[in-house]
Write a structure and sequence with these properties.
Structural class: alpha/beta
Binding site for (6R)-10-formyltetrahydrofolate: 64, 106
Domain Formyl transferase N-terminal: 1-181
Distance between the termini: 30 Å
Number of domains: 2
Largest sheet: 8 strands, mixed
Site (Raises pKa of active site His): 144
Helix content: 25-40%
Shape: globular
Family: Belongs to the GART family.
Bound molecules: glycinamide ribonucleotide
CATH architecture of the largest domain: 3-Layer(aba) Sandwich
Order of helices and strands: EHEHEHEHEHEEHE
Number of helices: 6
Strand content: 15-25%
Pathway: Purine metabolism; IMP biosynthesis via de novo pathway; N(2)-formyl-N(1)-(5-phospho-D-ribosyl)glycinamide from N(1)-(5-phospho-D-ribosyl)glycinamide (10-formyl THF route): step 1/1
Number of strands: 8
């Protein structure tokens, strides 16, 4: 299975995914693509010998269709079987999603359906939640709403700040995303629930 990974930032999830695809793993990373040319994850991918590309969204200034056409062309050139969004911070339109539906997954830093969108950790703390976590789901046109492929849970601790909770959830993301990818690559779409750690 050929896997393209879309990032916008440091790419720690991309690294966790890429580093898992070795040995007898049935998938390999074929492209790391960022909408930010300065994303730290591009250098981390390059250091691993993974082809990289950047499609900067800024010159498109609101012309989302043209941005997504460039994204699409760059992706098609790499012929991926699966696209993993890993901290990719652009909302994708229905048209783009439709072209890749069933072949595009995302990781989101909350226990969906709670807290779609941004600021998930601040919202979980504000609500007084005792548990937080992350979700891997299929990407569908509605934001953070597709069928859930897996979740991992972590405790919320007394004194947590959005940053301390984010760090704990991120560690869970690094366990969950490679585990879900492996199952998909082996043809298993059954939901995976990792217990609280
Ligand atoms: C991760 O926490 C990921 O779940 C989140 O961005 C972070 C990226 O970190 N994604 C979203 O919020 C998507 N809406 P990383 O670049 O180190 O993988």
């Amino acid at each position: 299975m050929r896997v393209a990974i879309l990032i916008s930032g440091g790419g720690s999830n991309m690294t966790a995914l890429a580093d898992s695809m070795t040995g007898d793993h049935p998938a390999r990373p074929v492209l790391v693509l960022s909408n930010r040319p300065d994303a730290g994850g591009l250098a981390r991918a390059d250091a691993r010998g993974i082809p990289t590309a950047a499609v900067d969204h800024r010159p498109y200034k609101g012309d989302r269709a043209a941005f997504e056409a460039a994204l699409h062309d760059t992706l098609c050139a790499a012929q991926p079987d699966l696209i993993c969004l890993a901290g990719f911070m652009r909302v994708l339109t229905e048209g783009f999603v439709a072209r890749w539906q069933g072949r595009m997954i995302n990781i989101h830093p909350s226990l969906l359906p709670k807290y779609r969108g941004l600021d998930t950790h601040a919202r979980a703390l504000e609500a007084g939640d005792t548990e937080a976590g992350c979700t891997v789901h299929e990407v569908t046109p509605a934001l953070d709403d597709g069928p859930i492929l897996g979740q991992a849970r972590v405790p919320v601790r007394a004194g947590d700040t959005p940053d301390s909770l984010a760090a704990r959830v991120l560690e869970a993301e690094h366990r969950l995303y490679p585990a879900v990818l492996r199952r998909l690559a082996e043809g298993d779409r059954k939901r995976l629930d990792l217990p609280q750690r």
